[in-house]
Amino acid sequence: WYTVNIVIPSMFMWVINYSSLYMSPDAAPARVALAVLPILILISLSSRVFSSIPIISTSTWLTDYIFVLEGLCSVNMLEYVALHACLRVAKARAAHGKAMEKKHDRGQIELHAIEAEGGSAERAEGPGMPSTLEAVA
User: Fold this and answer.
1) What is the per-residue pLDDT across 89-120, written as a single tens digit (0 to 9) for each?
2) Which of helix, strand or coil describes residue 131?
3) Angle 8-19/28-52 helices, nearest 10 degrees?
4) How far apart, in whole angstroms, are the C-alpha atoms of residue 45 and residue 41?
5) What is the DSSP letter of 4?
6) 3, 9, 73, 79: which has the fewest Cβ within 10 Å?
7) CB–CB of 114/120 below 8 Å?
């Protein structure tokens, strides 16, 4: 009875939870659903086990088995949380890098425009500001 009603379904839930590792990290709702639902179902199965076995002071292999599977499924969920945090940091760094590259390119374009007008880079300090050469002299 326990094998058919507890062990096989709990093993199936662990396989479903484990399959979320093969999904794209960008598919967040699907990955979260495949990580959370097996945990909830395993909690329900453990409740069913605790209600069907007699109260004893030691643990049984069945309760230990369910507890280990719940732990493995929770670790999978924590892995996805860590992966999502790392992806957010990587996206922020990429966006910052692109912004800095645009700023650098814009500065180079302005420098080339000043030089094309016959000016020098030292005159680019702004109106009313002495150029670098004037400040030295």
Assistant:
1) 998 888 888 877 777 766 666 656 666 666 55
2) coil
3) 160
4) 6
5) I
6) 3
7) yes
